[in-house]
Design goal:
Blueprint lengths: L10 E6 L1 H4 L8 H16 L3 E6 L2 H9 L9 H25 L4 E6 L1 H5 L1 H16 L3 E6 L13 H12 L3 E6 L19 E2 L4 H9 L9 H14 L4 E5 L8 H4 L4 E4 L4 H10 L6 E5 L1 H8 L9 E6 L6 E6 L2 E7 L4 H7 L4 H8 L13 E3 L1
Parallel strand pairs: 1-2, 1-5, 2-4, 3-4, 5-7, 6-8, 9-11
Antiparallel strand pairs: 7-8, 9-10, 11-12, 12-13
The chain binds glutamic acid.
The site of glutamic acid (GLU) has 15 residues, from helix 3 and strand 4.
Length: about 375
């Protein structure tokens, strides 16, 4: 059995905790990282696109700078440690992936980048392009500029948001625990929960009883919060141990102990997320051909759009109506003015109209829910 096999999961996000990447003496655990990079390469060869969310900047930087309390004694310390550690962390990833014939790309994002829908679309488009090019995005929080109130603070939730933005169909959180236990793992009789269908109070109480390595900021509570975000967006999430060689080896990965949080039913979860308190700010009317293409899973291209209504901005939710009525809702890649200028136009005509390189679609399928 495989964990998130390529055939069922074309796009995977893998989060790696600090304690896996940074040895107690402050060195990068390069042999382990090399094994993980080999797993990523094998998955890539099997047709799976993998994005990495990597912690470890603060832990690495703190040791290089000799800062107390792992660099977490003050926000300034953490930010200086992150700035120092990130450059080494990115270098370690680039080298490990390069040995496997893969190109790494660094993306540093803040909570604001993924919560603001315009910037969310930018980050999503970059991720999609990198993955489409066969590059492995290595994402971390931009800790050196994010202040306490606007930080994710832990990369577990960041990984869930990245998965949403990347249109991934699975998330694995690798850390020094091998899953959720029904009580503190050190207590006698503690058993691993292999599968969680719904995150309820019982599951949350189990999470409160567990804790982390003290190196990252994660812990079980933030992993459950990440699972809530991912599964709510229709993406299953697994917690698995990275304390093994080759933690994502295709053949063995499913047999090792782990906890899998099942996705909420995809269609309704995506609709709920797109609706999520948002009201549609406008409507894009499309022809019958485009309506059919959307139903088949395509993005909405300008060529199939016939009319724009409302004064929506980039990132706003819009309704998409075919000749027979509403067919989908999604986030607009252009504001209403630019969308109107592109109506009926093919991709190769758009740059001349806009005066800058066009986006791939009026509404991308990753940010669209069919009705
Ligand atoms: N972004 C932090 C780092 O790279 C880690 C956050 C976490 O502990 O999850 O050091």
């Amino acid at each position: 059995m495989e964990l998130f096999p390529p055939a069922a999961c074309p796009r995977l996000v893998v989060k790696i905790g600090s304690a896996l990447l940074v040895a107690p003496d402050g060195a990068v655990r390069t042999a382990w990282l090399g094994g993980l990079a080999a797993d990523v390469a094998a998955r890539a060869r099997a047709g799976q696109q993998v994005a990495v969310v990597s912690s470890g900047a603060i832990a690495l930087g703190a040791r290089r700078l000799g800062l107390a309390r792992g660099g977490r004694a003050s926000l300034e310390d953490a930010q200086a440690a992150a700035a120092t550690g990130q450059i080494a962390l990115a270098g370690a990833w680039a080298a490990a992936l390069e040995r496997q014939g893969l190109i790494a790309a660094q993306m540093l994002v803040t909570l604001g980048d993924l919560e603001d829908r315009r910037r969310y679309l930018n980050a999503a488009a970059t991720l999609a392009r990198l993955l489409g090019l066969g590059v492995v995005p290595v994402v971390n929080e931009n800790d050196s500029v994010a202040t306490a109130e606007i930080r994710f603070g832990d990369n577990d939730r960041l990984a869930a948001r990245v998965a949403q933005a990347a249109g991934a169909s699975g998330v694995v959180l690798l850390s020094d625990v091998d899953g959720l236990y029904d009580r503190h793992p050190a207590e006698p009789g503690a058993t691993l929960v292999p599968r969680v269908e719904r995150i309820d109070g019982v599951i949350e109480r189990m999470a409160d009883a567990s804790s982390g390595s003290g190196m990252g900021s994660g812990g079980m509570a933030s992993k459950i919060a990440a699972a809530r975000i991912a599964t709510g967006a229709g993406i299953p999430l697994a917690i698995a141990s990275g304390r093994v060689e080759r933690p994502l080896a295709l053949e063995a990965s499913g047999e090792r102990p782990h906890t899998l949080f099942a996705a909420e039913r995809t269609a309704s979860a995506r609709k709920a997320w797109l609706a999520g308190g948002l009201t549609a700010m406008g409507t894009i009317h499309v022809d019958a051909g485009a309506a059919g293409a959307l139903a088949g899973g395509a993005s909405l291209l300008a060529a199939g759009a016939v009319r724009v209504e409302g004064a929506f901005a980039r990132g706003d939710l819009v309704g998409i109506h075919g000749p027979a009525g509403p067919v989908a809702r999604g986030l607009a890649e252009y504001d209403a003015v630019d969308a109107a200028r592109l109506l009926g136009r093919r991709s190769d005509e758009q740059e001349a109209i806009l005066g800058h390189a066009p986006r791939a679609a009026l509404v991308h399928r990753n940010h669209m829910a069919l009705l």
